[in-house]
Amino acid sequence: MNSDHELTQLRQRVTELERSEARYRNIFESSPISLWEEDWSAVKQHVDRILATGVDLDAHLRHHADDVIACVGLVRILDVNRATLELCQALNKDQLLGALSVVFNESTLDTFRREVVALGNGAMSYEEETTICTLGGEDRNIMFRVVVSADSEQTWERCFVSLVDITDRKRAEEALRLSKEETIQAQREMLARLSAPVIPISDDVIVMPFIGRLDRVRMQQALGVLLDEVTRLRVTTAILDITGVPEIDAEGTQGLIQAAQAVKLLGAQVVLTGIRPGIAQGLVALGSNLDELVTRGTLQTGIAFAMQDGGARR
């Protein structure tokens, strides 16, 4: 009787295992995420032999690519699901398994090295972003994750790999980054124009007033705005008013000279107004060449000069 009872229990157990395996296979095959069932036991043995020599596994694999490639060849793929075939653009499992060298590129090899190091150092899982190439030649960004099954932590004979396609997310992130850069650049240009506004006085004359310290960076920004407006408005005279500038460094001074030279190349002239005594002394002390500049004491006199019919250049 005991024998019959034990046999009945064994049959029930087998039936439960079969049902459990069927449920697992159904979940495995129907998962929308690429899943790989693999046997890494030979990889574990190879890694153990390397570690037995007393070397640092990470340093060793970094300098011995042949061992990394050997580990790749020792991985035994037991099964892949339908989502894997779709991700890799393979018609069937045989086609995919015969073209793994196409799917997994140099970037993936680096990922594989790092996951071997992680597992070799005791981790039971590892993940990172990497890339693969589909059989159709399309690069895809993926989140790669490997997990050692709880019942094979000592042998690695059952490992599960998942590949999550994050290509669309990465593209969206890149588009957002570019959009932010464009926005920042537009804001910089707006600030540059606000810090050095251009005021048309007539069809032929514009004024660019400066307030605050004038250095090389600000002068470069102002020069770009100035040249754009001289070209756009086709003026003959650009007045740079520095009444509100308490100080100007050597590079800023040189920038004024360069502005005058650049504007002259466009067929117009620069009139510099509002020079304070201290700035005038600084210009002389620096030995600046002022021949390119028409100077006037105040903005009013500068405008009057520019508005004169046929105003002569100094």
From TrEMBL:
UniProt keyword list: Phosphoprotein
Residue span, STAS domain: 195-306
Protein's UniProt name: STAS domain-containing protein
Gene3D superfamilies assigned to the protein according to its UniProt record, in alphabetical order: 6.10.250.490, PAS domain, STAS domain
